[in-house]
Amino acid sequence: MAIPNVRIPSRQLYIDGEWREPVKKNRIPIISPATEETIGDIPAATEEDVDIAVEAARRALGRDDWGSTTGAQRAKYLRAIAAKILERKSELAKLESLDCGKTLFEAAWDMDDVAACFEYYADLAEALDSKRKTPVDLHLDSFKTYVLREPIGVVGLITPWNYPLLMATWKVAPALAAGCAAILKPSELASITCLELGEICREVGLPPGALNILTGLGPEAGAPLVSHPHVDKIAFTGSGATGVKIMTAAAQLVKPVTLELGGKSPIVVFDDIDNLDLVVEWTLFGCFANAGQVCSATSRLILQESIASEFLERLLLWIKNIKISDPLEEDCKLGPVVSSGQYEKVLKFISKAKDEGATILCGGERPQHMKKGYYVQPTIITDINTSMEIWKEEVFGPVLCVKTFKTEEEAIELANDTKYGLASAIMSKDLERCERFTKAFQTGIIWLNCSQPTFMQLPWGGRKRSGFGRDLGEWGLENYLNIKQVTQYTSDEAWAFYKSP
Ligand SMILES: NC(=O)c1ccc[n+]([C@@H]2O[C@H](COP(=O)([O-])OP(=O)(O)OC[C@H]3O[C@@H](n4cnc5c(N)ncnc54)[C@H](O)[C@@H]3O)[C@@H](O)[C@H]2O)c1
Ligand SMILES: NCCCC=O
Ligand code: NA
């Protein structure tokens, strides 16, 4: 299919408010996941560019036009960015879809969320002005104390490809709201819209250096950011393996990190549900939205045995309605996965599951009607035991594992039988049971009678190997603030610890 009428802009690195060619002049091709064709390229930053961007960020913090701004002044920039995102929404959605293969509908949804997130942190930036200095009453005459909340400094924001601009925004918006200067390093697999964010910042007159955008490979552009002595904090979203590398490198400088990593989240379905179809739809959405490339995807269905066969039959019927097509086609509900590497990885997971004795109930291969592109059918796998790789590891593709249970205890044990701890869902009309599960689930996000709805007012993050720290909400802002206590001695009396000479 021909590329629709949207031009992929050719950009450089966004540093110090300007477009700047990478020192080594290297570029990385953009491969369309839908057609496998090269559709453009992005600049590839290296250590030399990281140094230049960090200097620009430090200068921004030292200049009044950024370093001395109030939250209310920063809020104006955030709102202007939000307005530009909405103005360019349909173009940005198309670019996102072309780049990472997500359906145009979901990409447009993301752009609304991106704009709303900038708006939300504009409000929080304004509110910060009155919380910047908080007096603490010690009930002592001789001391006056207060606590300051200040921007943490220069922050490195390293983000993945599954929601390219949205995951970047979850970090960029609060970092700017807090008054930090940021360097964003998006994924080399999907950087187009993040570079457009640079153009938007330029257009709205965001002071130079407040946000810098370095595209490039992880080891070449991300790693030097993590080990740079003048980067004060790293906020990372991505895979567990990269998270370990980042934490290890940051530890050498005792640099704070927040890590939003992967998951293998459960959805537990009880037989007391009134409306089977409603639950079937949440189950599908929970695992196959964004072609399953969602950190919180509920990819382990834990199903009460008494309804298992009826539920699976309905799932199979509903799956037939999932339109698999070029992601730009109307009504497409499942596009390709992001890259050939991800495609091979997902198919390997499926074939290993087969080798280990699991049953592929549906899907499991490339859809026959898609001759090109990294498409994988929505896949359901049964006859699983808990030692299988498919049960234990994050696939990050449209693959649902199913296991059945008889008792509540068994369901909880299966749900928590994972090294990850990002999200859990339970479907039951018994609200007391929902409450018991809320307590028992070892995850940072709990969905009751739904799966995946995400609201920016709520903290987002996990436990166990899903990482630590929280994006979004007021917790997301705290990530970028330093707490400083100030203690003033107000008495004229001598301290009188030593004897006066
Ligand atoms: N918890 C969450 O909120 C959340 C959200 C989205 C995605 N994810 C996770 O992200 C993963 C998929 O994303 P991905 O494949 O882009 O992850 P990834 O770890 O491969 O890459 C993430 C980012 O890290 C960079 N990177 C790679 N090596 C690096 C290094 N040595 N030093 C510094 N940076 C480096 C990459 O270039 C990219 O920008 C999945 O595991 C998914 O669950 C988590
Ligand atoms: N709904 C947004 C989920 C982000 C993680 O992948
Ligand atoms: Na891409």
Description:
By secondary structure, the protein is an alpha/beta fold. The protein has two domains: 270 residues, Aldehyde Dehydrogenase, Chain A, domain 1 (3-Layer(aba) Sandwich), CATH 3.40.605.10; 183 residues, 3-Layer(aba) Sandwich (Aldehyde Dehydrogenase, Chain A, domain 2). The protein has 16 helices and 22 strands. The strands form six sheets. Strands 14-15-16-13-12-18-19 form a seven-stranded mixed sheet, sandwiched between helices. Strand 10, helix 9 and strand 11 form a beta-alpha-beta unit. The longest helix is centred in the N-terminal third of the chain and has 28 residues. The radius of gyration is 24 Å and the shape is globular. The structure holds nicotinamide-adenine-dinucleotide, the ligand NCCCC=O and sodium ion. The site of sodium ion has 5 residues, from helix 4. Pathway: Amine and polyamine biosynthesis; betaine biosynthesis via choline pathway; betaine from betaine aldehyde: step 1/1.
